[in-house]
Write a structure and sequence with these properties.
- The chain is of the alpha+beta class.
- Helices cover about 40% and strands about 25% of the residues.
- It contains 9 helices and 11 strands.
- A 6-stranded mixed beta sheet has the order 4-7-8-9-11-10, with helices on both faces. The protein has a 3-stranded antiparallel beta sheet with strand order 1-3-2. It has a two-stranded antiparallel sheet with strand order 5-6.
- Helix 1 packs parallel to helix 4 and helix 3 (about 55-70) crosses helix 5 (about 110-120).
Length: about 290
């Protein structure tokens, strides 16, 4: 999104170019000989005009083109295509792109640096087994949040099996079966199973409430799987008591329970995936399984 907004709001693409043209309409400096001996298409003349062709725009257009081939969101793809069209056809991409823009265009630097990084192959793939290709810039954050917990649960839930988006029949619509897919099902050796769902909704965690829609969805997961306990994991900033996981709400009936849990991701950045997975596994095990 930053790439699209940057192209639309700034003016790096305008620079002065002198172009040699042949036309009978006089728009620039005439070649004297051409006045007496015009070419078939008109007088030879030099015209000064604004142009969008330059090595910096070539980098931006190529980066936008790469992204347009990778994104699945139709609206974002259309906006990237419009951004490419806005800058127009560019000359060949430089073999070694400049790393910085001229000082008079410094408000373009963040956008331009992002484009250079994209051309260098920076991205992240959460489709093929969540393989991290490099520090990612183009990523659907809700999918990344799900993938984070998929990997962490597999590593951190000792002596448990973890199923990811397992389909379960929930209801029938005429002759068709409606199926639901909770993000994760943890099956422990002691026979106590647990549903876990990743919710990329910081606002709900900050407000300390589980949205009604998520309660209804959770109820469907519980009914379809027969597992009466569901934990919803939300991103949150630093938790005041110094822990990395904190329950903020409990929705319950006589037959099932849904828990909202805040998660502080800073543990991942400071200690890595292994430590984060271990702490997550210990928290879920001690709080909801044993």
């Amino acid at each position: 999104m930053h790439l699209v907004h940057g192209i639309r709001k700034t003016h790096l693409h305008e620079h002065v170019a002198r172009v040699l043209r042949q036309a009978f309409e006089v728009e620039g400096e005439l070649d004297e000989e051409s006045v007496f001996h015009p070419e078939r298409d008109g007088f030879t003349q030099t015209i000064t005009e604004f142009s969008r062709q330059n090595e910096y725009n070539a980098v931006i257009v190529e980066a936008a083109h790469i992204l347009s081939q990778s994104v699945s969101d139709f609206d974002l793809k259309a906006r990237l295509i419009r951004a490419i069209q806005h800058l127009g056809k560019q000359s060949r991409l430089p073999a070694v792109p400049q790393r910085s823009v001229p000082s008079r265009f410094r408000n373009w630097q963040d956008l331009y640096s992002l484009c250079v990084d994209i051309l260098d192959g920076y991205g992240i793939d959460y489709v093929t087994q969540g393989e991290v290709l490099s520090p990612g810039f183009v990523v659907r954050t809700s999918d990344a949040w799900e993938e984070l917990f998929r990997q962490a649960l597999v590593v951190g839930m000792k002596d448990c099996s973890v199923a990811f988006q397992e389909k379960h029949p929930f209801a029938r619509r005429d002759n068709f079966t409606i199926r639901v897919r909770p993000d994760y099902i943890i099956r422990s050796n002691n026979g106590i199973n647990l549903l876990v769902d990743a919710k990329y909704k910081y606002g709900d965690a900050a407000a300390g409430t589980i949205a009604n829609a998520d309660v209804y969805e959770g109820r469907a997961f519980i009914e379809a799987t027969g597992i009466p306990k569901l934990v919803l994991l939300y991103p949150f900033g630093k938790i005041t008591d110094g822990t990395f996981f904190e329950q903020f709400q409990h929705v319950t009936t006589d037959n099932w329970d849904i828990y909202g849990v805040r998660v502080d991701p800073s543990l991942l950045g400071s200690h890595g995936m292994s430590k984060f997975a271990t702490e997550l596994g210990m928290y879920l095990t001690q709080s909801f399984i044993y």
